[in-house]
Amino acid sequence: MMKYTIYMLRHGQTWFNRYNKMQGWSDSPLTPAGEEVARQAAQRLSNVAFAAAFSSDARRAIDTCKIITDANINKEHLHPTKLINFREQFYGYFEGMNSTEAWYMTLKPHGLTSFQEAAKKVGLDKAKDYMKAADPFHDAENAAEYWERINTGFEYLDGIAHENDKILLVSHGTTIQSISMKYGDGTFVVNAGPANSSLTTVVRNQGQTIVTDYARKLVD
């Protein structure tokens, strides 16, 4: 076991982001603005000597990862790889719906009215459980299902990483927020989700996870 650092970046803005739609395992392309903020983030990270680069298997993450790696000092040695464990949360029946409406339907029976309120008052794991219960097909992920695949992803990275490696991982808003809420080092508050193309720093040390920086903006 060793210590290494994961540079966890949220993908650039997509059309579903722009239209405030639930975008878990469903996908939509990056907008022109999303591509531009990814390019700006790539320049800010260009001198970070990444040892490896990963993204979820969503097109929005794959495309953002390529933009980042194409500008990196180690680009000749980087071969971006899909890692499905770090997909976004699966919203089941609610995929593609208006986000505000979907979360209202999910949370109102529990005395909550928004995703932001749930994050502050009950935490994201409870919100995941509420969504699975509200899904008429019960296909949405609950907290146990979600963390099983995320933790398997961390274990995979443990198996390929070397001491002091810096690894790029392009993932998603709720996933980054969930990891940061669960494994934050206590120096920051995790209520709002990370901005597109913002950076969260995750240290894996002897199989333990600690988030040392959350949602740092790389672009103005």
TrEMBL record:
It comes from Bombilactobacillus bombi. One of its GO terms (molecular function) is fructose-2,6-bisphosphate 2-phosphatase activity. This is Histidine phosphatase family protein. The active site is at 11 (tele-phosphohistidine intermediate), 88 (proton donor/acceptor). The lineage of its organism: Bacteria, Bacillati, Bacillota, Bacilli, Lactobacillales. InterPro entries: His_Pase_superF_clade-1, His_PPase_superfam, PG/BPGM_mutase_AS, Phosphoglycerate_Mutase. One of its GO terms (cellular component) is cytosol. Substrate binds at residues 10-17, 60, 88-91. PANTHER family: FRUCTOSE-2,6-BISPHOSPHATASE TIGAR (PTHR46517:SF1). PROSITE patterns: PG_MUTASE.
